[in-house]
Amino acid sequence: MAILVTGGAGFIGSNFVLDWLQQSDEPVINLDALTYAGNLENLASLEGDGRHLFVKGDIGDFDLTAHLLAVHQPRAIVNFAAESHVDRSIHGPEDFIQANIVGTFRLLEATRMYQSELAESVKAQFRFLHVSTDEVYGSLTQDDPAFTETNRYAPNSPYSASKAASDHLVRAYHHTYGIPVLTTNCSNNYGPWQFPEKLIPLCIHNALTGKPLPLYGDGQQIRDWLYVKDHCSAIRQVLAAGTHGDIYNIGGWNEKSNLEVVHTLCAILDELSPRTDGRSYKKQIVFVQDRPGHDRRYAIDATKIEHELGWRPAETFESGIRKTVQWYLDNQTWVQNVTSGTYRHWVDKQYKK
Ligand code: NAD
Ligand code: DAU
């Protein structure tokens, strides 16, 4: 048996693949298009490991995914592959429509064909787990209750609209064709191997290189933060025990304003890697023009996954953020390779033909 993971060279996908192979010998076929966000350096520790088969390719390539499914006969698909950065979706939505909507549609089509040809015994075990986001529910006011699985969809950015569309396709393939799908909607992740365009790794990198720490608008927008390894354990739990067709919200009950998050990062950096002038990294905070259509607040009610599947996050925000800052301090070469673009050289050389 094996599982097919898509987007397994990105931030969450690579954490998922590494954790999976730490806990199980079940092989992973890792399909990733290696966009700017895909980085095989994240998976360097798996070099020569026969349990990990990396395939460079697009989830929107029906022939490729149909071939991979037919040859490897995975018992599950975990679909991480997506364009994921809200700001990029505002500047150029087209890639998001292609990867997140058309890509998911084609992967579902290949899955439908695969599933129809599976022996009944294997079919009973098969699962398609779609990794989605809390952003599909839109924005909360300060007093609104946290998002539950029954909240109506109200996506506000091209990114969240494309994820919402993919969630609807996944739902429809269950309802119409009986594909055994599971959908997870998770809050903001942070941790090792996150591309330094997202708030937390960007601010750690900028702090250490003497650049401004840019906060959009008044910095009072709220996000609900979850350590990436806890997201991965939740996905494993949903895959193992979730009910077909169900949605599971995943979150860590860690609502923080962006200003609070950046203050916390500065305080940890002041302790672990102080500025040479003895002043706080807070001096580098600047308030910049807000993101268009910026959602004010996200919050996840994780009661369902906790009660039905017994999942709980292992990290608090305080323990997870400290581990994360330490990871970035210990992995400056990785950061430099990403920010200088060096990580693409190996990919270009390897895949030129
Ligand atoms: P990421 O941008 O770091 O990684 C995405 C990966 O998908 C990259 O390796 C990229 O090369 C690959 N990819 C993109 N388009 C592809 C395509 N068409 N075919 C094959 N591979 C493709 O993203 P991430 O932060 O790791 O997010 C992973 C998933 O989790 C996404 O679906 C995202 O919507 C969802 N999610 C992310 C967060 C978060 O806070 N980062 C929270 C909730 C849900
Ligand atoms: O909620 C889950 C989502 O979290 C995922 O679906 C997305 O893939 C992921 O990118 C993330 O989206 P956000 O837009 O919330 O993440 P980002 O790190 O880009 O921004 C977090 C908050 O910080 C947000 O309110 C915008 C703000 N911000 C971000 C950047 C990059 C700043 O104030 N300054 C910045 O420079």
Descriptive report:
With 353 residues, this protein is of the alpha/beta class. It has a domain at 3-191 and 226-254 and 294-316: Rossmann fold (3-Layer(aba) Sandwich). Helices cover 45% and strands 16% of the residues. The protein has 13 helices and 12 strands. It has helices at 11-23, 62-72, 86-91, 94-117, 120-125, 158-177, 199-208, 228-241, 258-272, 303-309, 317-330, 332-340, 343-351, and strands spanning 3-6, 28-32, 52-56, 76-79, 127-133, 181-186, 188-190, 213-216, 222-227, 247-250, 255-257, 285-288. The strands form 3 sheets. Strands 3-2-1-4-5-6-10 form a 7-stranded parallel sheet, with helices on both faces. Helix 1 (11-23) links the parallel strand 1 and strand 2. Helix 4 packs parallel to helix 6. The radius of gyration is 20 Å and the shape is globular. It starts with a strand and ends with a helix. The model has no long low-confidence stretch (mean pLDDT 96). Residues 6-7, 9-13, 32-35, 37-38, 58-60, 80-84, 99, 103, 131, 133, 163, 186, 188-189, 195 line the site of nicotinamide-adenine-dinucleotide.
CATH superfamily of the domain at 3-191 and 226-254 and 294-316: NAD(P)-binding Rossmann-like Domain
- CATH architecture descriptor name of the domain at 3-191 and 226-254 and 294-316: 3-Layer(aba) Sandwich
CATH topology tier name of the domain at 3-191 and 226-254 and 294-316? Rossmann fold
| Rg over alpha carbons | 20 Å
Helices, by number, come to 13
Order of helices and strands: EHEEHEHHHEHEEHEEHEEHEHHHH
N- to C-terminal distance: 31 Å
